[in-house]
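[job 4471] stage=fold_predict status=RUNNING
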Amino acid sequence: MSAIHGNLATMPTATSTATSRRLLSLLSLLQVRRDWPGGLLAQRLGVSDRTVRRDVDRLRELGYLVHAVKGPEGGYRLDAGSELPPLLFDDEQAIALAVALRIAVGAGAGIEEAATRALATVRQVLPARLRQRIDALEITAVESAGRGAGPRVDTEVLLALSAAIRAAEELRFDYVSPTPAAETGLQPPRRVQPHHLVIQGGRWYLIGWNPERGDWRIYRVDRMRLRTPHGPRFTPRQLPGGDVAAFVSARFKGSEGADNWPCCGEVILDLAAARVAPFAGDGVVEELGPARTRLLIGSWSWAGLAATLMRFDTDIEVIGPQTLRDAFADLSHRAERTARGR
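[job 4471] inference complete, writing structure tokens
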């Protein structure tokens, strides 16, 4: 907004405060609706059609691409231009932008420095009332326990993946496996039909359909080395379930279908519900008494589920299924052999 006011101050046509405010109001209206009849704009601004035409010309001089729309009523449309003109944000948009820029610093997308500079630029032109609210907002990115900072991904790679998704073009890429190359041997380039680009836990992932395996796959973007040119165009498929977040969550749980753990059990713990809930993850906690809690919880394997429940360090009563009891028995035998040094 400061840039707009600065440019208006040098314009020879009108420099009054009323004109500046009217131009800002006109720009705000043009940004929230695609097409505006000229008469309706004049009515909203409380001016004549002629004044609207003059104000539109002033916006064009500032770099905004405002087209005249032909028709019975006539009107105007704000389109994207070849250069970035001064921008106008309301209070909620300005705060949302500042929050997004703070989060972007830890997104691992190679834009940390640019996001920091952009936040400084936005902050400089904010009114004092908004600047104080932004400065009071402190966001610290905390990595998951046992995991270091997420791997950095080249911004150009993210842009290339996004462009391939939009154009529905197959990708060809080499995939760097965590397994040593000597064990895996030389792997041929992979082919995938890209569908979604997501970020979770500080890591970027590509969801795509692998035509050679006839199945959906999730690839870590930091392990992808794109090849050019891209492959042929394809007709996008419908992601199972239609929900990207649920699909990713299910695959990370080891489930091929619904967003549920493949192994689920029900137990009763001799602990208060308040002590169980913080460590139950997405499990269902039900208080049965001062020191007795029912817990429905899942895991990617029965052994993993039994080991997870043992971490509560209390007596456990298995309600079901029998497979969970068998997993506890197997875990007990393993622990006994370990204790004997075998």
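[job 4471] summary: The two ends are 73 Å apart (CA to CA).
[job 4471] exit 0
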